[in-house]
Amino acid sequence: MKKLTIGVLVVALIIAGIYYLFFRSAPIANAPLKAPEQNEIYESNGTSTAPAPEETPVPENPSETQIGSSVENRDITAYHYGTGSKELLFIGGIHGGYSSNTTLVAYELMNYLDENPEKIPEGYRVTVIPVLNPDGLFKITGSEGRFTPPTTPLSLDSTIPGRFNAHNVDLNRNFDCEWQAEGTWQTRTVSGGTAAFSEPEAQAIRNYVESHDIAGAVVWYSAAGGVFASTCRNGISGETQALTDAYAKASGYRAYQNFDFYEITGDMVNWFAKQNIPAISVLLSTHTSTDWSKNQAGIDAFLNYFAE
After folding, report:
1. Which of 44, 119, 135, 182 is the most buried (most CB within 10 A)?
2. What does the pLDDT look like over 66-92, one tens digit per residue?
3. pTM of the complete model
């Protein structure tokens, strides 16, 4: 009996050994696959690689600053491109709906900078204020920002009310450079306000300029087809002259030492000169076209001046 028991144990041990040798490493049917680690991506050939780094999303819009409000409480907005400490300033729409193409060219510049950020000189930030007179723009276009010009241009006479702000002041006669309460526009007498910087739109620019390091400025007007240097009876600085010549040469506009078609008082660009900021006035060729090809070339030359 004892021998029989020993024999049974021996047979059982032999069977267990055979099972261990032949079936130990076999896969278990329908066993779940191991999930990939969170930091792995499995390719079709079974190998694994680290995931590609996520791209930082590029914001669709640049940073914006509300620098002030108009008489009728519409925002005056500055759009910023680049991160430098010095600023290059571009301004349109000081004459609202009368020169609405100056707002349109500013928006074209914004599109251009969105698509070509490398154009911004290292160490600089480009700031674009497309509408300095939003009440005047709204009066003619019914828009406070971007707008589509009518397929049939309005008559020039019908846009004249849009030149002025809601106080009926010509904003380009409201700055502190030889300011007068009554100014001249062509053959007309226009209001320069009750004092220099009496208007909130002019105050917005003054406050912005005085609190930032503005290295140069371009202001668009219409319509004469030229580039004008700035001075407040203190002479044209060498840098202002260089910027005037560079923009004019690249754009094909004629360069002018000063605007002498009629007497100008309270002019914004001349006030820049009084603050020792090199600034130029660019007058578009008509009241409807943005002259974009000309201005793109001029803008490139202006930016390249500061990149050198």
Report:
1. 135
2. 999 999 999 999 999 999 999 999 999
3. 0.80
